Amino acid sequence: MRRWLALLGTSALIVGLGAAPAAATKPLLQRAEAVVDLDFPAGAVCDFAVHVHMEMKTKFSTFVDANGTPTRAISTGRIHDWETNVETGETQFHSISGPSFFDASGALLRGTGSWSGIQLQDGTWIRAHGHITFDANGLVSAVRGRIEPLCASFA
Fold first, then answer.
1. Residue 1 needs a FRET pair 20 to 30 A away by CA distance; which of 15, 25, 72, 127 works?
2. How many percent of the chain have pLDDT more than 90?
3. What stretches of 4-152 adopt beta strand conformation (E)?
4. Residue 64: beta bridge partners?
5. What would the mean pLDDT of 100-107 be, rounded to a whole number?
6. Which domain holds residue 27?
7. What is the count of structural domains for the chain?
8. Over the Cα atoms of the chain, what is R_g?
9. The CA-based dihedral angle spanning residues 23, 76, 129, 92, taken in that order and rounded to the nearest 10 degrees
C-alpha cells in the first residue's frame, strides 16, 4: 500500500509541476525529383556494357542541434532503377527502398531495405537486401541479409 501511495504521490508531483515540452530544432528538409541515366562501358561494372536508368523522388532530412550544426541525416523516398545489359538488351527493374542514414558530415553510414548497383570493397557490384553498412569511401563493408552479384543476375 505504501508503494502505491508513493507512486501516486510522485505521479501527482510530476503532473502538478507541468513539465514543459523539450525545445527541439526542426530538421532541414530537401525534396528532389530526378531522372538519371548512366552508361558504364564493358569492364567498368560488368564484362558487358551496362545502362542504368533511375527515377527518383526523395526527401533528405538533416537534423541539426540548437546552434544549427548538422548532427545526422536520413534520406527517404522512392527510387526506381532499370539496369540493362546493352549487349543482350535484357532489362531488370528494381525498387530501391532505402532509407539511407548519414553522419553529420553527410557521409553515408548505412542503409536498409533493397539496394541495387552498390559496390563491395573488393570491387564487385551487387544488389543487397537487408541492413547495409558502408565504409568511409561509400563501399559496402557489411550486409546483414542477402547479397546478389549484379552482373551474374544477367546470366
1. 15
2. 75
3. 28-40, 50-64, 70-85, 91-96, 100-103, 108-119, 125-134, 140-149
4. 70
5. 95
6. 22-154
7. 1
8. 23
9. 180
- Residue 8 maps to a domain: no
> What per-residue confidence (pLDDT) applies to 97?
83
User: What is the rounded CA–CA span in Å between residue 18 and residue 22?
Assistant: 12
> Coil, strand or helix: which one is 7?
helix
Q: Which of 104, 94, 98 is nearest to 75 (CA)?
A: 98
Is 129 within a domain? yes
For residue 21, what is its C-alpha cell? 515540452
CA–CA separation, 38 and 19 (whole Å) = 54
Spatial separation of the C-alpha atoms in residues 95 and 60, rounded to whole Å: 18
- 126 domain residue, yes or no: yes
Grid coordinates given for 42: 564493358
pLDDT tens-digit map of 4-56: 334 334 343 334 444 445 556 888 899 999 999 999 999 999 999 999 999 99
